[in-house]
Design a protein that fits this description.
two-stranded antiparallel ribbon, 2 strands
Length: 127
Amino acid sequence: IHRIRGFFVQADVDHTGTLSWAEFRKQLSKPKVRAYFQALDLDVSQAHELFGLLDVDGSGWITAEEFVDGVLRLKGQARSIDVNKVLYTCERTLAHVMELLGRPGFESEATGRDDPLRRGPSAERQS
């Protein structure tokens, strides 16, 4: 954990306590850094996707906590059981959403109006 945090501190060249996409990308262009990430079994060939996975709150910045937690979470090869657990969770969530959409009288909670997805495109044009 200390080495991962040390990397973060080095990468944070503007000393804001966060990494921007530019800072992250610049660090990943260094052969030593790429080798370090590869030693952790982290694929840096799709750096932007990796940045997105580390940026848990979607702020466009990676905090030290997001970075350390994310690297620890993502390092190593994904095991088949891990992938299947995610797939199972996604399938259950989709089934639950489809069940909710199929309920009579389903309304959008945000607006209190009928959901246009539920009514279909022709009904939306008439309103």
